[in-house]
Amino acid sequence: MSKTPQNMTRIYLKIRPERLGVLIGEGGKTLRELENRTRTIVSVDSVNSNVVIEAATPQTTVDMLLKASDFIKAIDAGFSPERALRLLDEDAVLIIMNLKEVVGDSQNHLYRVKARIIGEEGRVRTNIEQLTGTYVSIYDDLVAIIGDYEGAYLAREAVEMLVQGREHSTVYKFLNKKARELKRRRLTEYWVRDIDVKRNEELR
User: Fold this and answer.
1) Fewer beta carbons under 10 A from the terminal one: N or C of the chain?
2) pTM of the predicted model, to two decimals?
3) Other CB atoms closer than 10 Å to residue 59's CB: what's the count?
């Protein structure tokens, strides 16, 4: 893992004013945990809602800076700190979709689309999360997804189908099929990896 290059020692972000308190946490707890786990220094300008991420040590890597950035973007997109912390795992990714870029500025249209993604009592969102192993946030005009690469992009595809007006039953059928395929592929990968490990042990 490479050290932070001289030309990338800071990342500048903007965050919604109402999400600043969530980012900072009670007594600064959330911010401190982020800094400790990513070896960064995170400075928050509460007046202008600006955030600056800096390397705290020479050992701070580009990946650490980007992980801290993704965490803050996830908080801005409506995730709780507990869910956003998943982004610090090596295999986790963040996907953010701006619904206005897809459906336009009509508030009525945005409301209807978000209602389709959330579902009655949040059931549609929960089903997507469970079938893809992801977290999904619908906040303001954003849909944000946290998960491993394959799960996150599968959840994104499901959301896009709902935005396009596909029936919930069609989306669930699609997700169930893809989830089964993904599970089989992962089991095969684990099985092959296990065989390789055993072979290497026998050759020692």
Assistant:
1) C
2) 0.86
3) 11
Rounded Cα–Cα distance for residues 118 and 34 (Å):
29
What whole-number distance in Å separates Cα of residue 67 and Cα of residue 70?
A: 5
Q: Tell me the β-bridge partners of 11.
A: 53
pLDDT range class, residue 199, cuts 50, 70, 90: low
With a CB cutoff of 8 Å and minimum separation 6, the contacts of 186 are: none
Using H for helix, E for strand and C for coil, what is the string for 55-124? ECCCCCEHHHHHHHHHHHHHHHCCCCHHHHHHHHCCCEEEEEEEHHHHHCCCHHHHHHHHHHHHCHHHHH
Report d(CA 153, CA 151) in Å as an integer: 6
C-alpha distances in Å from residue 39, one per residue of 52, 62, 126, 163: 14, 11, 33, 39
Q: Treating both helix axes as pointing N-terminal to C-terminal, what angle do 168-203 and 149-163 enclose, rounded to 10 degrees?
A: 170
Convert the pLDDT of each residue in 59-103 to its tens digit: 999 999 999 999 999 999 999 999 999 999 999 999 999 999 988
- Measured CA to CA, the distance from residue 103 to residue 62 in angstroms comes to 35
Contacts of 106 (CB under 8 A, 6+ apart): none
40 sits in which H/E element: strand 40-45
Which residue segments constitute the domains of the chain, with CATH numbers given?
1-88 (3.30.1370.10), 91-204 (3.30.1370.10)
Closest CA to 97 of 154, 147, 148, 159: 159
